[in-house]
Records
---
Amino acid sequence: MGTFITKRLLYTILILLAASLLIFSLYAWTPGDFITGNIKLTPERKAELREIYGLNKPLLERYGIWMKHALHGDFGYSMAQQKPVFTLFNQYIWNSFLLAAVSTFFTWLIAVIIGVVAAYRQYSWFDTLVMVVIFAAMSLPSFFIGLFLIKILAVDWKWLPPGGMLTTGSNATGMAYAEEVVRHMALPVIVMTLLGIGSLTRYIRGNMIDVMKQDYIRTARAKGLKERQVLFTHALRNALLPAITLVGFELPALFGGSLIIEKIFNWPGIGQLYMQSFGLRDYPLLMGFTVLIAILTVIGTMLSDILYRVADPRVRLQ
Amino acid sequence: MATADLLEIEGLSTYFDTEEGTVRAVDGVSLRVRPGETVCIVGESGCGKSITAMSIMGLVGTNGTAGRIAGGRIRYEDRDLLRLNKHELRTIRGHEIAMIFQEPMSSLNPVLPIGEQIMEPLIEHLKLSKKAARARAIELIAQVGIARPEQIAKAYPHELSGGMLQRIMIAIAISCGPKLLIADEPTTALDVTIQAQILDMLRQFKAESDMSILLITHDLGVVAEMADYVVVMYAGKVVEEGEVVELFERPKHPYTQGLLKSKPIMGQRQDELYSIPGQVPNPLELKPSCYFYERCEHAMDVCRRAEPTLKGVGEQGSVACWLYEEEAIVHG
Amino acid sequence: MSTITGGVAESEVAPAKRPLARSSLWRLAARKLLKNKLALAGLFVVVFMFALCFIGPLFSPYTDNKIHMALMNKAPNLKHWLGTDALGRDVLTRVMQAGRISLTVGLASMVLSVFLGSLLGAIAGYYRGIADQVIMRIADLLMTIPSLPLLFILGALLSEWKVPTDYRMYIVMLMLSFVSWPGLARMVRGEVLSLREREFMQAATVLGLRDRRKLFKHLLPNLVPLLIVIASLNVGGAILSESVLSFFGLGVMPPTPTWGNMIDSANNLIDFQQRPWLWIPPGFSIFATVIAINIFGDGLRDVLDPKPKK
């Protein structure tokens, strides 16, 4: 187990280094930058700023400088917002996390319940209905369903606010503040849950169907246990075991925000921040964000591997 | 008849609907088990003996199989198991009728500790508290001859050998003091030395508790060792039944005779082991006939036209074979 | 019990290994597919959408794409079933024309990424060694970078390079394949690795067959079912990705219409709130097409995959 983790860690670091160099080069090759695009600046001022930000140096040297700072926890300075990238992330990331955590919770809750029931009643009309809904959820264009629900629920029926995290100009505090946030969260959470639920339900249903055919389920029934106990104690535990690996894969989504959903719902999260900065070509921030997601992705993958080994008693001892 | 039967199956039919047609896995099987008696069902794999057991337990149609019970009665004490609702059936399963299976390695849940799996029926049926159930589970582990029961209770199935797991399965089965234990090929997956231990254990528990055993096996050695009464099945039907000594000494049905002949005998070297010629018929292509006629050395014209019924022959036994019907006619 | 059901299943799987029996395997698959009503419904919708987009415009009197000021922003009516847009063009005709592009981009990028992914995956899995190391490390690297930002960067590069709008759709195809081949390669490699170990491949080695013959005659035919399934599910994903890119103005750009860039009109507050006929029809077209493809693809998986259903 120890050598396994060390090896994984080494490989992970190598991949991360390569990925960050690739990302850095891509952003560097993208023509245009924040300074060039700013028409308010005189050519002299532009040249001066380039010098300050070190944009005149060769690519590899710039990458080296960036890396040196990054290793010290400094992801650079946002040109558009005039704040350190790290500070900005810290400011926005928790809004993203709130949205993602709540929708992940609902996604798993609903997917487990529906997946178990559909597997238990395989080939029933309920199961067929679930399958169709699963495919529907997997086939939704995220930005379109977001717009569509805003149009129906917020614009036409006025049930929920169309976007943002707080009503413009609101200075609510305490419970009133919380209530306002919850009302604003409802629509994006519904959409994100809807988008996530398809593949997870399908996965859990598939696992449950496999597990229900196992000999130990027959034993559990032969012991005269209640069906509920057979399903939830005996079958679900085994069906969820491989799903533990998915927890790791959720990591980038939990902290990395959702570019599309946050943009559509004008949610002040890190994904929305990225979309804004992309238009402005605010490279330090774009770079920081992309590397952050890459880090979360590799950590998540590694976490999945380790979690699986910890959770499964059969692998645990080997 | 001295005592009332514990279990009486009458005309049980269990069918599987497949894309190619209906497979009559169990086709009008009748048998009885008396209190304290060991009945063996013998036959080749696929003859329907396991499905008969699963039908008694009400487990047909679960585990992703498409089987259904098409007819018959399964009377246990004074109840018809096929007419009980799910709840009533569940209070009998694992409590009054328990079952152990062929594959101990896969029959226990890999992610639950052994102890918990033994505790479950104790809590469910005997309404023991968790603490009492744990104490009883450890006792049971000791009772099936496993050392260090406390540690074993905390272990997971993959940490134990197949023989130990089958002992655990027996511990689970006897935990609630069942009146009938169904053992479906309990020793097939185990080493020969372990097989004898498991069989001894079953005999010992039977002697201590007056429980009946319905033992399903293809191994005539096991039958000789365990059975009071034997039921021979072929292609979903009972072809012969009788007291064990009578059946071994004077097998009537050509199939039983073949089975006994193909069993190697200790101390006798044969140049060639006997095997019954031919193959089990395709279950989808069965026509009204004796299903064994293609392989039978005594096959007659009537055998391929009509199905023989199970008729009493001799003291206790019955056989379904035209040879004996003819005899009956001839000797009037 | 298992002998009975198991026996039936085996006789269905076994012929796959012998070329003589292969045609009957395909026939069996087709028969099974015909029984799957859901998959057939999916296939029907897919065919319908293709027919609508490729044949439909031939019957439309509004294909000239001329600007008609008098017909600006008309709500759906008898002459224009889905209304008209800000330039007075017929929305239904635009949706059909956009569908041509969206479906073409989806199909072409699927073909390209399945080709790339299966070729590289098969090479990695079959030859192992250095080829495997290089290919899979590159795949790992590309999978580490989040795909949406990657697509955005590539899209931005396109914009800055002033690629003519007519050619953008081809480059969008390339971009989509570029981000989706690593996942496919990984899947194909896994399958090849397990196939290598199977008896019939070892038999081919024992018979002394040449590498190329083993690869093309014995290995690839066994990959075909997996590839068909991957391909069908990949089309849906490609259509969705294209729509996202085009919606954000980084994919195919107007005047070339695609379903994604038609929904762009929802970014205009008045169009969004008061003229839903401009952006809802293309959105539903994407949804209907992708769900139909996914359902059909899943039906194919059930039919072609000898392994138990998931």
---
Amino acid sequence: MNHKSMLLSRRAFLRGTGVALALPWFESFAAAEPGVEETPKRFLSVYHPDGVGLPLKSDPAWNDWSWFPRGGEKDFELTKVLDVLEPLRSEITIYSGLSHPAARQVHGHSNADQYLTGAPIGGEGPYRNTISLDQVYAEHAGDFTRHSSLVMSTNGGVGGPRGAQTQSFNREGRPIPAMNKPKEIFDMLFVTSGKDAAARLARSKSALDLLIDNTRSLGRQLSSRDQETLKQYLDAVRDTELKLTKAQKWIDTPIPEVDTRNLHLDAEPKEARLYFQTMYELIYLAFLSDSTRVATFQLGRENGEGPHDLLSLAVGLHGAHGLTHEVKKPDGWKNLGTYNRYQAEEFGRFAQRLKETPEPTGQGNMLDNTLAMHGSASSSFHLSRNYPIISAGGKNLGFTNGRYLKFGKGNEDNQAGAGIDTDAGWTAKVEVEELPLSKLFVTILQRLGVETDSFGGSTGTLTRV
Amino acid sequence: MAKYSKQPMKTLAITVLLVFGIACTIRAVDGQATPISLEAAKELGRVKSRFLKQTVADTKPIEAIPTAEVEYFQKSVAPLLHKSCLACHGPEKSEGRLRVDQLNPDLLTGADVERWREVYNVISNSIMPPEDAPDYSLADVDRGNIADWLSGELNKASFVRRSSKAHSSFRRLTKYEYNYALQDLLGLPYALANTLPPETASEDGFKNSSELLQMSASQFESYREIGLKALKRATVSGERPQAVTYIISMQDAMDKATSGKEDKTFDKSDESYRKQKNQPHLLNRETGKGIRFLDRKSMPVPDAVAGQMPAVSPVVLILPRSKELKLDLDRFLPDEGIMRVRLRAGRSTMKADEYASLRLIFSAHTSNNANFSQVISEHDIPVTESGDNPQFIHFDIPLSDIQRNPFRKLTTTFPRRDEFLHIQNVSNAPGREEQLHVLIDYIEISAPFYEQWPPKTHTDIFFASDNKGNEEIYGREVMSRFLRRVWRRPVTTEEVDQFMALFAKYRPGFSTFEEAMLEVLATALATPEFLYLTQRVSAEETQSPTRISELELASRLSVFLWSSIPDDELLKLAEQGKLRETEVLADQVKRMLADPRSRRFSQNFVEQWLGLDRLNSVTHVTDSSLKEAMQHEPVAYFDEVLRHNHSVMDFIHSDYAMVNERLAAHYRIPGVFGPDFRKVHIDLQSNRGGVLTGAAILAMNSDGKDSHPLKRGVWMLKRILDDPPPPPPPNVPEVDLTNPEILKMTLKERIADHRNKSACISCHSRIDPWGIAFENYDALGAYRTQIQDKPVDATSELFNRQTLAGMDGLKKYLLTDRQDQFARAMVHKLTAYALGRPLSFGDRADIDSLTAQLRQRDDGLGDLIQLIISSNLFNTK
């Protein structure tokens, strides 16, 4: 079938009606054939709960253990928290002064849900979320790969409202369950039987055949004008058919074989290092094999508790969440900083691995075609402002790295809300100006090739990025 | 008002002429000198109607192919136009880029129909020539002659152009229609179609407009998913599942709470009871002994059966106003099915000005800051009986549709797994000595709850049959019956064959007949004949416009009045070819309007006609019960006018209002108690009546802080007069709010200043005066006489120099001079909605004819529905 011409005529039809419509995502089908290669553009977001260390300048710990860098855009200096990223300096960007406006006075523990969505979920009462950044991109790029996205977290499932255990939310704002067991993720990615799927597909195909027949016979009894309207329905059925054909192709396409040497598929969160590294390695393999181009990974849940609070065991510390409450105790800032440092280290290792891997089908290395984000929805104790965000890679997408980008006004040295360990922080009035994080998201979407000018109720991009 | 139309035609014509003259005299000195009542204005305006002067024969659509009457124009119309219009719209000056001397007088073939339509509007509405240009004034007789000629020619032109068929009524069902269709088809009362994308509104504000109802692949897939999911909800398999049942008897709760804790009890006669009585507590009404209700965990009672009728207990839970009973149900509620919450409740006092009702809330608190709570009952249910004679109340909640605690199945205890049901007393009871409380003595919570097994929704699809043993024959029976409802027409054997072939393919993949069949039925729900409103072309059809079939009429009717598919009675009549019989059709319309499903018509039409959606995007109405009441008022009002066949002029003004307690308080109308809307008579001092002064309209056409005359003016022109102003030109200069001169001005002065800029004047002088007349109403729609200590100035002057003295003046003007325009607008809006397509010039003659008939029948809204349904437009493609 000649997809291009069909899509063209459909576009022309929509234009002809004089109606401004967002073209459905199926429009990207023409190129959505396995084997038709274009350098993949990838997106990863890693979320860590509980924020980072933000001591006051007057605190002796400020010098070493404040998360944000010092200095200007290019000549910034990393503290001990992020110095593990120094070797990757030219591949990363660090941001300050960004947050989601609706969450600025909501308790930080409620906010993992809205980090990638920007939705005004509030702190209590009825709960409604919206689509997350990764899923907007997955709608765009998901057809190129076997899996439209890979959604992971240490805790798995969806969590509860205002206590998310997934970073991904679909078009209706419903949470997408995250996978947390390395073995299951590996099987899903690289060992699939596809028997059930094949039977389902066959059924769908027969149903579509009937619907096409039925539509044609109705069409013969309509005026030529009404047939035009009905053609839209027929196009929709045919687009769905194409999708099935594609799904069938994936079933028939052999699953890629990958190098499993770095995987410890039985690792559990309490074996923090092994677990961390295995999860990152799974994302790496999924990207390398082009099984998906979109991934999210949430480390722990806000407010800790449970086995997943033990990730800090990797650096010999207990209870990751507790670290944020104990900053005023001896070595408190140092301990929190040490854990954040470890998170950065693992993220850096992943970025380094992408950098060292040449792009299988294109130019440069894999990191150049991947935008990997690392961040949290609170900077300091329960405070949903000034999100600590790092991005790595994306050179071929248009990102210029090696920079520390400060946004907003009045908080150039990141002292607003610093040094607090009480709820006086997040309940306080917002005194400094920050920019909506969604503006960065719009920039990211545009560079990933999604035509949009707004996200999460915010319009426009971030300049300087 | 009725007395005119019930007289013979000739008398009417004479009366009209006489009163017409008088009315004009009054209008000449109108405004200051001779205040007339709104009722009198209604009477006066009515006799001015041009539509009433026509005989019925005149307004009938033309049968033969008409020709243009150019000769008459040259002789009688052109001289008048030249005398009164040419000075401003001729070779010297051509204001509004109009030259009347250059318009082609042949409207049937000429290119100037649209311009002529404008001329007709300004002449017939006495907007032109301007009143301050006496040299060019038109005598009433002359005005009438021009208007008559133009209206006749426009009608002929419309008839000729109708055959070009600008728009079609073939369209997809809207999201809400699809939802209702599925609900009615399967007998499921829940929102089923939430995952479909919302519809775009047409320029008229309608969401059912054919050209905007698109289809995409992802939407198509949603239909398939929704259909299958709904079918699975309607049907059951296997044995009746064991229900999880909680029983909370207040006698038991009291026994447990008091055992060994006598010291915690109190007595109703104690002085300290004052402190307790406004908190939920248990009380023995016979002994007066009470104790606080302890929020303990409730556990399901094994083998308990719901629906018990225990003897009324003296021990009750006292639930004061706004207070709630919070029940911890732990983690045992099933994932799916109906949760029936049944309880026995009564009132502590029976004062007529107090009400109490119950509301259900569901919540969980899984860990610090990870929590949710949501209202799960669709409506509050009033408690009306006394505590001595309590009543059973029940709520049915679909468990799969509400937010649940995702951790409820954890094997560990953290995050917390519990789910909470709150029963809340929503009441207006004031803090009197003898407070109105709700008394509850018995509660049952049971899920999944079934009235019968298998449920009716199941046996409606998989009905009893002797052929149940034979899958092929029985499958065919099931399929035929289902398809007939889905397609709203009889089905052929060949059509059923197709689906049975699909069934044969599916059957081996499923363990039961029903499972395989559901997949096939779901496919039927994705066919275009379910999703679209069809209009077939028959083979012999050559000329247009042609009639739709009776079956198509049945669907058009039910979508119009029920926003859904036809029921069996309609379908049968259509199949028998009886539906078009005049009496039958009229009876069916009556039956349909009496059916509760017709509330959907009031709801959807009014919401779209008036654009009530916009209230959802304003942020300054923060009181949710006020907002809800505001939004419902126009719907309740329309419903009232419809059901009593009141005049559509009541939408402009009436001496009654539809309010509930919350809204009545907002309007300062005394003596209204309770959440239900009811009709109350109002006097002039209330400054309400009709839809123009509805708080929703006023609030949504505000800017968040204050009234917004421009928005209100535009709204008025678009929604009420069907005379939308052109969109604002690009590069409009903004009002400079940094300019101190401008900041000093009142709003009205600012508007005047803006209007006087040459780029703005032509449009704004048509819009602003309408909006300024609304100035006595603030951003919440409350009536005011002062703005920032200055008296409100709501007097404005229309483009035609007509003075509008506030809302009263506006209403008077509309009733005296614009009745025809409003009646026609109403016909236009309702017909566009009924047909599900935008109206074009080609529909003009039919709309005029309908308007004339409406006016002859005293403008009754109920009559109008009947007229539209029996009209040519409604019965043709």
